[in-house]
């Protein structure tokens, strides 16, 4: 296939480019043109690739491979009708060429007709001498169709053909993960490692599987073997650090994160993890130092800004926490996590109008978490804007219709708004959903005891439940 790997510029490419500059005409073998075109397409130089195809076909008008390369470029440019026309002509001369079926499959895939693409690729398998690429393409089509079981089998075939095909190996693991078959993945990787005991990629993936299953000692062993196989494998050190964090071995975790910084340029993720370890160890100054380095290294990493903000919030230094979350908002005002954090801090500071605005931004930007609705409605309740608090709760219940906490709270706010009948209706609904959460209503709205209707309703419900 044209977009497979090819080498660096060679004499043919230099000669071809010299011809373009001088307007001289040099003759090339068809195979030379194929190499030149592959090189240009692989390096994203589509215009030069098309020029090489044009000249190549002028010199070799009957070359099937050059025509197929032309088809590939047409497909890349979404010129499907022209591509199909050439494929029809080619199939009249060579009905059993697997590349023709592959290109037809590419067209179907780009038109989102993935089942037909699969059918064509299966047909191509019948005519192909080397089916490695076809199994890879099949795997991708099955992924588009969300058929992870068949995708997994296709990528497994690729690994059988070439056990150093790590791209396919990653895809096999991805399919196992999506199918939530962690045990199957662990078995597959261990079997692979029996044949390839020094494959750092497989050890790394195995460690991640063990980590996902909370098998931390096994994960440590796997990451150690990954490091033994390649002592410059940054990912293995980083993942090992995460396991050590889970085990509470923070100093050892820091050592592994620091190794990643010495091997390559520092990353914001490594700084962040080191900062969290130091915070767990009570090294507050070092924690702050690494958190600041996190956002300096990558100002767009929201986890860094949230870590600094949370650090100061835990220290009850809400003014400083607000300072940093506002810096984050100035960088990325479309991040709902920043606005939600700002809302919580404004609430702590008693700036309820600002908290209300921040919660509105949070929801407008797509954060619909349960606590967002609860906290926003509480903010409005504290302001005394019961109508708006009710509107927020009603909106939240649309997302969480079975969440009794929202309905209890709505009943209470109706009560505060002197809408007794609506309060009774919502209280009964909440009791039917989850009577165990009644204590939340009783503690937040003690005034319900002064309303005979609610007391009677509650008494009747308790009698009916016994």
From TrEMBL:
UniProt-listed InterPro entries: SRFR1-like, TPR-like_helical_dom_sf, TPR_rpt
TPR repeat residues: 132-165, 200-233, 234-267, 404-437
Alphabetical GO biological process terms: negative regulation of DNA-templated transcription
One Pfam family matching this protein: TPR_6
Name under which the protein is recorded: Tfp pilus assembly protein PilF
Phylogenetic lineage: Bacteria, Pseudomonadati, Bacteroidota, Flavobacteriia, Flavobacteriales
Keywords, comma-separated and alphabetical: TPR repeat
Transcription found in the keyword field: no
Keyword Electron transport attributed: no
